[in-house]
């Protein structure tokens, strides 16, 4: 009978505890392995290279004619936001769009009410 149900001979809680300890030890071992540490170093080095390349490309773009033009356009938008000009345009455009939508919806309502 004990062969059919081997867990009756042991302590289930103790085995679960041992399983947790063993998984923890395995994870610690994998985390501390030279392969994982090398991979981490490679990733960190690669990310540092990527950041340096992106910073260089951004600075190059900023100094280019196109970059200067984009910067000027951003400053223009910022200025228009500060003096309310852009806000008024957006508000007027939104009002016009909503008025058109409502007019079309009213036409649809009238058509179905007949």
Notes on the protein architecture:
This protein is mainly alpha-helical and about 110 residues long. It has two domains: about 10-65; about 70-114. It contains four helices and no strands. It has helices spanning about 10-30, 35-65, 65-80, 85-114. Helix 2 (about 35-65) crosses helix 3. It is flat. About 0% of the residues are buried. The model has no long low-confidence stretch (mean pLDDT about 90).
Tally of DSSP β-strands: 0
Radius of gyration: 34 Å
Largest sheet: none
- The SSE string, one letter per element, is HHHH
Mean pLDDT: 88
Strand content: under 5%
Distance between the termini: 83 Å
Number of helices: 4
Low-confidence stretches: none
Shape: flat
Counting helices, strands and paired strands, the structural category is: mainly alpha
Give a quick rundown of the structure.
Helix content is about 85%, strand content about 0%. It starts with 11 loop residues before the first helix and ends with a helix.
Considering the chains and any ligands shown, give keywords for the structure:
114 residues; mainly alpha; flat
Spell out the blueprint of helices and strands.
Blueprint: H1 12-31, H2 34-63, H3 65-82, H4 85-113
């Amino acid at each position: 009978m004990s062969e059919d149900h081997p867990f009756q001979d042991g302590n289930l809680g103790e085995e679960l505890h041992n399983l947790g300890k063993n998984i923890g030890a395995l994870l610690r071992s994998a985390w501390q392995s030279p392969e994982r540490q090398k991979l981490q170093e490679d990733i960190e080095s690669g990310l540092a290279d990527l950041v340096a390349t992106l910073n260089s490309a951004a600075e190059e773009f900023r100094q280019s004619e196109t970059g200067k033009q984009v910067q000027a356009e951003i400053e223009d938008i910022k200025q228009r936001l500060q003096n309310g000009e852009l806000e008024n345009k957006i508000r007027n455009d939104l009002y016009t769009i909503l008025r058109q939508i409502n007019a079309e919806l009213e036409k649809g309502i009238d058509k179905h009410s007949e």
